[in-house]
Write a structure and sequence with these properties.
Helix content of chain A: 40-55%
Largest sheet of chain B: 6 strands, antiparallel
Strand order of the largest sheet of chain B: 1-2-3-4-6-5
Number of helices of chain B: 3
Number of helices of chain A: 4
Number of strands of chain B: 6
Oligomer: heterodimer
Shape of chain B: globular
Order of helices and strands of chain A: EEEHEEHEHEH
Strand order of the largest sheet of chain A: 1-2-4-6-7
Largest interface: A-B, 25 and 26 residues
Strand content of chain B: 25-35%
């Protein structure tokens, strides 16, 4: 598995679980790197069953949100599935305001999300 | 930056540099933390000010490092005031495409104006639209989910 600097990736029953290194996803250089690493997961490593676990993430700017939208588009193009979990309430609020909660499948916990992949 | 009895304030002109902008936003967050603002309010202010400054640098000043952004912050016990002015031509905030429309949902970008409007208690743009003024009133501790 490739080495990443902005994310940690583990495998659980065929689901690639992505956790974020940064508590605050705000620095523009880090966000660019994050976008490249997320894209590489799909396009290079060919992983397209992905769960993004936001446990520990305190803040993310809309530039980071844009990277998630790009990832979602790539996963869709690869006929994969993407879910999100463990969002703190304020980040969830941003998804709700922007109606991105309709674009992304957001689950409360990692366990909920992993179980939902099996449905 | 002074933290007086009436609050903390910052008024400076910075180059169009995101790293400098982020350092200033961090100072604002520190001031709000010192004044014991609720975490939810701080998150919303950080989100909105991040949008406003990035818009000013990227869209207003077109990342031209010679162009400046004027940043004014004032943190008081019950309200936070933020004003961002760039040297661009401005834009019509009433005429920004709705990012929540079905065919725009999967398009990156274009959510800044909406986030500022929804997360702040008040948001005003000048004419020609190169300045945004935002006010956030402190939420009740028992109503942390409110904006």
């Amino acid at each position: 598995m490739a080495t990443y600097r902005r994310i940690n990736v583990t495998d659980e029953g065929g689901v690639s679980i992505v956790r974020f290194v940064d508590k605050k996803i705000v620095d523009s250089g880090s966000i660019e790197m994050l976008g490249e690493e997320l894209n590489a997961l799909v396009t290079v490593e060919k992983k397209n069953i992905l769960l993004l676990n936001f446990d520990g993430v305190e803040f993310m700017s809309s530039a980071a949100l844009n990277k998630l939208i790009s990832l979602n588009n790539k996963v869709k193009a690869a006929a994969g599935r993407l879910k999100l979990s463990n969002l703190r309430s304020e980040i969830k609020e941003v998804f709700t305001i922007t109606k991105l909660d309709r674009l992304f499948d957001i689950r409360k916990t990692q366990e909920d999300a992993v179980a939902a992949f099996k449905l | 930056m002074p933290m007086t009895e009436s609050g903390w304030s910052y008024d400076n002109t910075i180059p169009s540099d995101l790293d400098i902008a982020h350092a200033i936003i961090e100072e604002l967050m520190q001031a709000m933390s010192t004044a014991n603002w609720p975490g939810g309010d701080m998150f919303r202010v950080q989100m909105a000010i991040e949008e406003a400054i990035v818009n000013a640098i990227e869209h207003g000043n077109k990342r031209d490092i010679t162009k400046k952004v004027r940043v004014i912050f004032r943190v008081e016990d019950q309200s936070a005031y933020m004003q961002i002015t760039d040297e661009g031509e401005g834009f019509d905030h009433r005429n920004v495409a709705d990012p929540t429309e079905e065919d725009r949902l999967d398009k990156p970008r274009g959510r800044g104006v909406m986030l500022i409007r929804e997360l702040m208690s008040e948001a005003h743009y000048n004419e020609p639209g190169n300045q945004v003024t935002m006010i956030k009133h402190r939420s009740n501790e028992s109503d942390e989910s409110g904006s």
